[in-house]
Amino acid sequence: MDTLLKPAHIDLPASPRSGQRPDPNHADCRGVASVLSRVGDKWSVFVIMMLGDGPKRFNELKRMINGISQRMLTLTLRGLERDGLVTRTIFPTIPPRVDYELTDLGRGLSRPVEALGKWAMEHLAQIEAARTRFDKRGEH
Amino acid sequence: MDTLLKPAHIDLPASPRSGQRPDPNHADCRGVASVLSRVGDKWSVFVIMMLGDGPKRFNELKRMINGISQRMLTLTLRGLERDGLVTRTIFPTIPPRVDYELTDLGRGLSRPVEALGKWAMEHLAQIEAARTRFDKRGEH
DNA sequence: CCGCATCCGTTCTGATACTG
DNA sequence: CAGTATCAGAACGGATGCGG
Question: Membrane spanning segments where (chains A, B) (predicted)?
Fold first, then answer.
């Protein structure tokens, strides 16, 4: 079990040398980063959104997201489970069935996440326009 | 200028085979993903937050974030600039001075982002507890 | 049906050194 | 001070095959 499905996450970039003196204001930045990188994870956001509707099965999620590979979905779900954002319920039937559902914590997170998603959809055009403009200028 | 400071971003995972039939509901997921991955970018969130206070200089930002390397800060700022979220103002003085500031678009984004950051800080303890618990069980 | 493990290419990151 | 170039190591991500 050496390589496992390496979650890796980010945990902490490990606080820098002791010689440094970050503003106390930003002392918690590292910790926050580890939470945000879960959210920032491309797939996590989608999974959280999909699960906002209610519990889903593995392949149901896979189908909904559709661009995701099995591996990444497994990894994402594990990460979410690890962080206490989703629960994993196994029904030892044949064939097996596994349901994923948001915890209260996860449901709380889904609100800001959906706000972000909403914003993203509304301003998508503007951003893409800006991107195109920028790229055109850059290609000197 | 071959390797440059490769931005790479994500742009689009490129939509899958045409044989697939994702719910129309998720047709725009890909586009949203490219926006979210900017937000999800560990550093982007911090930069946006820092800039929420007002314009900042390059090294000022570097100092505030403190875990970031010069390279990553440059990359992050470029990406943000590309997306039309921040402006870059150069003062051709000696020594040179460059100010970064949120655009209106960026300021709009900073609201949901800060909500997310706020949530992250408030629930950090719960998440870390869940993580520890999970890891302890995993280390069979 | 659910999910773990391995191979293996691609991408990201940090450290360092060099310009204007 | 602000930024670029380069390189080597780490992490990510997908495809495939196996097992409960």
Answer: none
CATH number of the domain encompassing residue A120? 1.10.10.10
The region, left, alpha or beta by phi > 0 then psi within -120 to 50, assigned to residue B15 is beta
In the predicted model, is pLDDT for residue B80 greater than 50?
A: yes
CB closer than 7 A to strand D: which residues?
A 6, 8-10, 41-42, 67-72, 95-96; B 1-5, 13, 57-60, 70-71, 74, 77-78, 88, 90, 95-98
Q: How would you classify the pairing of strands A97-102 and B97-102?
A: unpaired
Look at chain B and report how many structural domains it folds into.
1
Residue A12 lies in a domain: no
- In tens, the pLDDT along B84-94 reads 999 999 999 98
Distance A132 CA to D3 C1' (A): 23
Q: Using one digit for the tens of pLDDT, what is the confidence trace for B34-72?
A: 777 777 787 888 899 899 989 999 999 999 887 899 999
pTM, 2 dp: 0.81
Tally of CA atoms within 13 A in the half-sphere of A13 that contains its CB: 17
Domain assignment present for residue A20? The answer is: no
What is the reported pLDDT for B28?
Answer: 56
Provide, for chain A, the percentages of residues in helix, strand and coil under a 3-state DSSP scheme, each rounded to the nearest 5.
60, 10, 30
Domain that holds residue A91: 28-139
Q: pLDDT per residue over A24-53, tens digit each?
A: 444 456 667 777 777 777 788 889 988 998
Count of alpha carbons within 13 Å of A85, Cβ hemisphere only? 29
Interface mutation vs chain B, best among A116, A121, A134, A137, most B CBs within 10 Å = A116
* Structural domain includes residue A99: yes
